[in-house]
Amino acid sequence: MAPTTGTAAGDTATKATTNGSEPAPDLISGGHLVAKALKAEGVDTIFTLCGGHIIDIYDGCVDEGIEVIDVRHEQVAAHAADGYARITGRPGCAVVTAGPGTTDAVTGVANALRAESPMLLIGGQGALTQHKMGSLQDLPHVDMMAPITKFSATVPHTARVADLVSMAFRECYHGAPGPSFLEIPRDVLDAKVPVDKARIPTEGRYRASTRNAGDPADIEKLADLLVHAKKPAILLGSQVWTTRATGPATELVHGLNIPAYMNGAGRGTLPPGDPHHFQLSRRYAFDNADVIVIVGTPFDFRMGYGKRLSPDATVVQIDLDYRTVGKNRDVDLGIVGDAGQVLAAVAEAATGRVDNGAVARKVWLEELQDVEAKAKQKRLPLQHSDASPIHPYRLVHEINEFLTEDSLYIGDGGDIVTFSGQVVQPKSPGHWMDPGPLGTLGVGIPFVLAAKHARPEKEVVALFGDGAFSLTGWDFETLVRFNLPFVGIVGNNSSMNQIRYGQAAKYGLGRERVGNTLGDVPYDEFARMLGGHGEAVRDPADIGPALLRARESGKPSLINVWIDPDVYAPGTMNQTMYK
């Protein structure tokens, strides 16, 4: 592609002068080339912590109308870029300085890799003229980032800056989405080159659509399997939201009368109350189904590495990444493609049949509804418990009752968020956020930052474990500074309780408190100190009113709920690492 020239590329360029009669060509700096490439990708915000290596990017962003949100820790910037991608469907971008700035962001990048979240981390570096001389904050960033990114490179020349940015974004979408990393040396970033010498890819023309519908023959096979299945089940994973496949997924399960289970960002694909929305009967369904379709979820620890599926079932796996299909467990049919395109094609292939099996499957759905009802009834007394300290089930029940169709829910923690996964049900697609399979604590405040900034019209509700909040909690001040109100709840048991349970199970009660016990921190006071709204709750009857007051405050808020430290979530007790 030819470089873009003329006024469009030269709006922010410097017009130099010469001693001759002809003016020198327009010049543009590396930082401004970064900003132009970000704008071409649709990025309207960068998350950053300042450093001398990267300030020319800020200057370019000001000229291009890209907002600069500065945080207190680079891990927060990287997590926020991840969260921005999940919320908007566009890649996120974090910009950090060299050395410790880049290493601080490693956890956020790693989390985005496992969560299949497209983001670009730009890191500073010492000048090329000081290469290997021991410049300030010099580290081998590219080598460090290579194992946890889809693309990791150094920009070798100012004229290549925008080109490499576009290349990094292209790689973000190779197979399943993920993060890329670019290192830009200080002199490359600050230098200016003639605009007509810089390759500036044109918006919409430097990468192709990745919406692949899979092999048509396999689509027909899957349609036949589902039409003739007596007891099918489908799991809608995170890629259903990543590919914005809510419509096709809903059409398929409704049209063929298939029970649907949802995990990760796929939660909310079907709203609570939908007759095809199931949650508490998944193990029963996977033990008894004759056809199981797994969409956008790997056979990792969450799926028991595939062992939680009946060995007698016909198993189909649909995924964006060829490497994921059939990994850890054999499948009867694997389809590599975009979840939305594949599910839409299967629904179309199944139409026009004299009998698509939907009516006969009514008995199967009723069987699962009975299992669901019994499981819910068994847990209901705990959800209404008046015990003090507060039972975690009561807390997450109150949160679920509080949520509206516009409430975007974020879970950041161990044991308390495991409780919430059984009870809290987002009312709309894309309204559930959790770390993903890396299990990273500390994503909560960064995700709030990204979600509320990108979707200011949404109510953001976040549940934190007290240990998780402590990791990135100082950026609560960033939310106050940028006036981004949200309803935050800390389930406070003064412990890293998920680990505590494992220690007690493995070593006995005499050693259950080694390295996992926290102080009794009044997080409500912390919130008020930083300019937000804060309340403490010890009586379960006060949870609902406190949540309403937080909503009405119009401020970033923390409701510090003191919960029973001696109660563990079933998911915590069933973790295989403790067996």
UniProtKB/TrEMBL annotation:
Cofactor(s) it depends on: thiamine diphosphate; Mg(2+)
Keywords annotated in UniProt: Metal-binding, Thiamine pyrophosphate
Pfam families, sorted: TPP_enzyme_C (PF02775), TPP_enzyme_M (PF00205), TPP_enzyme_N (PF02776)
Entry annotated with the keyword Metal-binding: yes
Molecular function terms, GO-annotated: acetolactate synthase activity; flavin adenine dinucleotide binding; magnesium ion binding; thiamine pyrophosphate binding
Annotated Gene Ontology cellular component terms: acetolactate synthase complex
GO biological process: isoleucine biosynthetic process; L-valine biosynthetic process
Domain Thiamine pyrophosphate enzyme N-terminal TPP-binding as annotated: residue spans: 29-138
Region (Disordered): 1-25
Thiamine pyrophosphate enzyme TPP-binding domain segment(s): 412-561
Domain Thiamine pyrophosphate enzyme central, residue spans: 219-345
Sequence ranges of Low complexity compositional bias: 1-20
Family assignment from sequence similarity: Belongs to the TPP enzyme family.
Identification of the protein by name: Acetolactate synthase
Organism field: Amycolatopsis japonica
